[in-house]
From TrEMBL, chain A:
Subcellular location: Mitochondrion inner membrane
Source organism (scientific name): Macrolepiota fuliginosa MF-IS2
Record keyword Mitochondrion present: yes
The organism's place on the tree of life at top rank: Eukaryota
A GO BP entry: electron transport chain
Topology in membrane: Peripheral membrane protein
Protein name (record): NADH dehydrogenase [ubiquinone] iron-sulfur protein 4, mitochondrial
Keyword Transit peptide attributed: yes
Entries under InterPro entries matching the protein: NADH_UbQ_FeS_4_mit-like, NDUFS4-like_sf
Pfam family, one: NDUS4
From TrEMBL, chain B:
Source species, domain of life: Eukaryota
Gene3D superfamilies: 3.10.20.740, 3.30.200.210, 3.30.70.20, 3.40.50.740
Species this chain originates from: Macrolepiota fuliginosa MF-IS2
Stretches assigned to the 2Fe-2S ferredoxin-type domain: 36-114
SMART domains associated with the record: NADH-G_4Fe-4S_3
CDD domains: fer2, MopB_Res-Cmplx1_Nad11
Record-given protein name: NADH-ubiquinone oxidoreductase 78 kDa subunit, mitochondrial
Domain 4Fe-4S Mo/W bis-MGD-type as annotated: residue spans: 253-309
């Protein structure tokens, strides 16, 4: 990744800033570790604040393709087939699939094979902030899907028998 | 996150009672309007819920899990499974928490020995007649009975009847829902859903006690476009999905949360895939859009993704297509563009129904770079600038928003049948119609909606008469005049109609007359219901022709997912490129076909009819050599020598932000202020002043709900639905129900 690309990203990130309020795109600054060219001037320049995020990628030696693939941070919704709300409290981080044929069917048995080593990886976090922080540390592009608030009105058994002033509109066949 | 609120999502009937009391008549309700909150103790934890909540809701709010079979958040309370028993202090018996209102100061115990014993008793009775066929049952792995019996079931049976377990004949509900009625535990969720939400009153119960059965009384399929939801609702394996039967187990599936583009509602879905295949599609709960329901087309059209796919670029040689590499295909297009001699407006781009926002933006940018404004939509009269214009967003969006449909107290439907154009939205209208004294007026071709309406006429003249106020007095008219939140729902087919200008002129007059009620800072009742997923986005980015361009005869045509195009409208000497995922009509017309991705294979933005941008997600990779759509256009732009200035998805979204920030503000609807909305309406009125009305009747744009796009046309399940429901024929499965059934158990 060239320095130029990092600059493009930085401007892009600035432009994106207004949409951070709702759903967030983020791009890990993988090149933050590269020092900016020092200006020769007599003015006193305030020291840059130290960023808390050290991108793991700079030192981990992980394959660089990881960085080019967005991750998504979201709260999985309840399976509509079941009434139990299990696993919907935690925030999940997982990887978008690779474009192009990262998966194929084994012609002998029909098993699915994959060249994508991140497909089996799913990370789970207690909070959205934890997940974002982790993605930033890794230097991954991320998209945060805002949580949906479930709105259930108060329900009452007696509503089945409430008097309606107008013509009857439902035949209950229960 | 759960929030129990008092006003949204279900119109309460106490509103009516309040009104009755105001008019001086005695209220029959014994309870007052619910506004206060009450506090009670659940398992030693204090919890505050709105008055009028069921006890089970209070327990849930306190974080206690209550097992249940019949209770469902979005259906009426039945109280017949008795699984949700809890202990309440000073109550002699355990109480069913779903049918019991939460009382202030009550002390509730959900985990006491008494509760356990009671639930174990209920479970034993349920299991006594439930077949032990979990290994061959499709519900296995996501079965509520299975889950709850792990906690409350016994490991041995006391059931020793010589006659064996209860056996019930299977019902035939059509090609979508498979029944094994022996497994039924009579929770009646399906019956309540059919009654309240889907509006199918044929599904009901007969008999009582051990002989109670769920069925349609006479042999009849369940004709509803929401019928697939009863599969989700069924807590056991009595109702399962027929197309998905024995295909996969839930633990094998990888689920991806995404958005559905088969109609303009933008239902949230969960795509369950295994390997390279989409195995099923489930709804994802979102109270702002689809609640918990999706239409049958959304749910079952996925098998169309396996058939008729374009997997490799094709170049026409003579009268047949020859497979080519991407390089050759793109070069062929560049050559074709040069050979056709097309320049500026002679280059035409047509946006189809399933085109995603990213590719629309890229295609518009490419056409503009080639000096063309000839950007047209794949619909009747799509080559003309739209009559409502695209300068003001509220002129073509569903401004009232989908959840607020329930707040409307009078609805006028103009040239639309929401049941087929937005099935999930239709269920909200029905909900409101059932629970409030809502009145509905209807102008257009008569349709079988799931609610009663007053027919006001079938053409633009009827609307004109209605606006001028010369209609006979009726229940709807009285309601309309008194309505605080009136709602006009204008169908998307209106702008395709020959009388479009006249209709929009009349509508703008109506809005002007009623602007104190129709367009206020809180409420915008002028709502256009789009029916295809790409339309709102196309209008948002200005994918419309200029007046000069719409007169130009094209020499080079780029069809982006355009499969409804009239072949006669394409000049025989034009060079045609089709980009899309299915070999449907558009591909037949093309000189070069470029294989794109279907909605399950790309993570793109979809703007629904409210103007709500939602980001989909790829679940499986596209087959063969097909690529993501905007990338194809980006690649082509290099070859034709007008490269686009973005090379990855984030840069493209920055470009979308430049065009309109609402395209990348995901999951929210941006309201147009009432002043601008009225200015937009005024602009329509000025533009259409003096428009003549021909008086041709409005036609339903969707004659067959099950086959509206290349995916559903390629789907076998949708073809069976067409036979069974649209044509009313035998769809090929009924014979099996006449043959002898194997006697299990």
């Amino acid at each position: 990744m060239s320095l130029l690309r990092a600059c493009v990203q930085a401007t892009a990130a600035c432009k994106r800033a207004p949409l951070q309020c709702v759903s967030t795109f983020g791009r890990g600054m993988a090149n933050d570790s590269i020092p900016a060219p020092k200006k020769e001037s007599s003015e006193i320049v305030a020291p840059e604040p130290v960023r808390e995020v050290l991108v793991a990628d700079a030192i981990s030696g992980a394959p660089s393709q990881l960085r080019h693939r967005p991750v998504r941070i979201y709260q999985p919704t309840r399976n509509t087939m079941q009434s139990g709300p299990g696993k919907s409290e935690r925030w999940r981080l997982d990887f978008d699939i690779l474009p192009g044929g990262s998966r194929w069917e084994n012609p002998l048995m029909g098993y699915a094979s994959s060249a994508d080593y991140m497909q089996g990886t799913r990370l789970s976090f207690r909070s959205k902030e934890d997940a974002i922080h982790f993605a930033e540390k890794q230097g991954w592009d991320y998209f945060v899907q805002p949580e949906a608030t479930k709105r259930i009105p108060p329900k009452n058994y007696s509503e089945n028998f409430v008097y309606k002033p107008h013509k009857l509109r439902i035949m209950r066949t229960k | 996150m759960l929030r129990i609120v008092s006003s949204v999502s279900r119109p309460s009937s106490t509103g009516i009672l309040g009104k009755v009391a105001n008019t001086g008549r005695r209220s029959l309700a014994s309870s007052s309007a619910r506004n206060a909150d009450i506090t009670l103790t659940v398992d030693g934890k204090e919890v505050t819920v709105p008055q009028g909540s069921a006890l089970i809701q209070a327990c849930e709010a306190a974080g206690a899990t209550i097992p249940r079979f019949c209770y469902h958040d979005r259906l009426a309370i039945a109280g017949n499974c008795r699984m949700c028993l809890v202990e309440v202090e000073r109550s002699p018996k355990p109480v069913a928490s779903c049918a019991m209102p939460a009382m202030p100061g009550a002390k509730v115990f959900t985990n006491s020995p008494l509760v356990h014993e009671a639930r174990e008793g209920v479970m034993e009775f349920l299991l006594a007649n439930h077949p032990l066929d979990c290994p061959i049952c499709d519900q296995g792995g996501e079965c509520d009975l299975q889950d709850q019996s792990m906690r409350y079931g016994s490991d041995r049976s006391r059931f020793h009847e010589i006659t064996g377990k209860r056996a019930v004949e299977n019902k035939d509900l059509g090609p979508l829902v498979k029944t094994s009625m022996t497994r039924c535990i009579q929770c009646t969720r399906c019956v309540r859903f059919a009654n309240e939400v889907a509006g199918v009153e044929e599904l009901g119960t007969t008999g009582r006690g051990n002989d109670m059965q769920i069925g349609t009384y006479v042999e009849k399929t369940m004709d509803s476009e929401l019928s697939g939801n009863i599969v989700d609702l069924c807590p056991v394996g009595a109702l399962t999905s027929k197309p998905y039967a024995y295909n996969a187990r839930p633990w094998e599936l990888k689920s991806t949360e995404s958005v559905d583009p088969l109609d303009a509602v933008g239902s949230n879905i969960r795509i369950d895939s295994r390997g390279v295949q989409v195995m099923r599609i489930q709804p994802k709960t979102n109270d702002d859009v689809n609640e918990e329901w999706i239409s049958d087309k959304t749910r079952y059209a996925y098998d169309g993704l396996k058939f008729q796919r374009l997997t490799t670029p094709l170049v026409k040689q003579g009268d047949r297509f020859v497979a080519a590499t991407w390089e050759d295909a793109l070069t062929a297009i560049a050559d074709g563009l040069a050979a056709s001699g097309a320049s500026s407006n002679e280059i035409q781009a047509i946006a189809g129904h399933l085109a995603d926002t990213e590719s629309l933006v890229a295609l518009k940018d490419l056409a503009n770079r080639l000096n063309s404004d000839n950007l047209i939509l794949d619909q009747t009269n799509g080559h003309l600038p739209p009559v409502h214009g695209v300068d003001v967003r509220s002129n073509y969006l569903f401004n009232a928003t989908i959840p607020s449909v329930e707040e409307a107290d009078a609805i006028l439907l103009v040239g639309t049948n929401p049941r087929h154009e937005a099935a999930v939205l239709n269920s909200r209208i029905r909900k409101s119609w059932l629970h409030t004294p809502l009145e509905i007026g209807f102008i257009g071709e008569r349709a079988d909606t799931t609610y009663g309406y007053e027919f006001l006429g079938a053409d633009a003249n009827a609307l004109e008469t209605f606006v001028s106020g010369k209609v006979a007095d009726s229940a709807f008219l009285r309601k309309w005049k008194a309505a605080k939140k009136p709602l006009v729902i204008v169908g998307s087919a209106i702008s395709e109609h020959p009388d479009a200008a006249g209709v929009y002129n009349a509508l703008s007059k109506l809005v002007e007359q009623e602007k104190s009620r129709l367009v206020t800072p809180e409420w915008n009742g002028f709502s256009v219901l789009q029916r295809v997923a790409s339309r709102a986005a196309a209008y948002d980015i200005g994918f419309t022709p200029s007046r000069a361009a719409s007169q130009t005869k094209p020499k080079f045509i780029y069809l982006l997912n355009a499969d409804e195009v009239d072949p006669k409208s394409i000049p025989s000497d034009a060079f045609v490129v089709y980009q899309g995922h299915h070999g449907d009509l558009g591909a037949q017309l093309a000189d070069v076909c470029l294989p794109g991705s279907a909605y399950t294979e790309k993570g793109t933005t979809w703007v629904n009819t409210e103007g709500r941008a939602q980001l989909g997600r790829a679940a499986v990779s596209p087959p063969g050599a097909s690529r993501e759509d905007w990338k194809i256009i980006r690649a082509l732009s290099e070859v034709v020598g007008a490269p686009l200035p973005y090379s990855d998805a984030l840069e493209l979204r920055d470009r979308m932000w430049e065009i309109s920030p609402s395209l990348v503000r995901y999951d929210v609807t941006e309201k147009t202020s009432s002043g601008i909305a009225l200015a937009g309406i005024n602009a329509i009125r000025e533009r259409t002043a003096g428009a003549k009305i021909g008086g041709a009747a409005f036609k339903k744009p969707i004659t067959n709900f099950y086959q509206t796009d290349p995916i559903s046309r390629a789907s076998v399940t949708m073809a069976q639905c067409t036979r069974a429901f649209t044509k009313g024929e035998n769809y090929g499965f009924s014979e099996s129900s006449q043959t002898e059934q194997a006697a299990f158990a």
